[in-house]
Amino acid sequence: xxxxxKKGYYVKGHFVAExxxxxxxxxxxxxxxxxxxxxxxxxxxxxxxxxxxxxxxxELMGLRDDLxxxxxxxxxxxxxxxxxxxxxxxxxxxxLVQFIGKLxxxxxxxxxxxxxxALRAQARGAPRLDK
Length: 131
Description:
There is one protein chain. The protein is mainly alpha-helical. It is 63% helix and 6% strand. It has 6 helices and 2 strands, in the order ββαααααα. It has helices at residues 21-34, 43-61, 65-70, 76-86, 90-105, 109-124; strands at residues 8-11, 14-17. Strands 1-2 form a two-stranded antiparallel ribbon. Helix 2 packs across helix 5 (90-105) and helix 4 packs antiparallel against helix 5.
C-alpha cells in the first residue's frame, strides 16, 4: 500500500507540514523580516513607478518641439523620442518606449515637474515659444 504524502517543505533538515504550527510561525518570521526596511519600496511599487514614468514618456512624445526644447533634458531623451517618431516597426516602437522609460527614471524631481508643467501648458493651448 502506498502511504499518503503530506505536503510541506524542509527547513534545516526538518520537515515542516503545510498548515502546521511551525509552518505558520515560519511564515510570520519571513513576513517580519521583509519589513525590516519599511522605507525601501517593494518590487510592486518600483514596477508601478516605472510604468508611470513610461506613460509619462509616451505623453512626452506628443509634446510640441518648442516646449520639448525648452525642457532641461539629458541629450539621449530627445534623441530617443525623435527615433521613436521615425521608426515604423511595432516591436521597435515598444522597445524604444521601454528605453525612454529607463531614461525617465534617471530624471530628478525638478525635471519631472517641468515635464508635467509643459504637458499642462500644451493642454491649455499655450502659445508657441519659438515666435
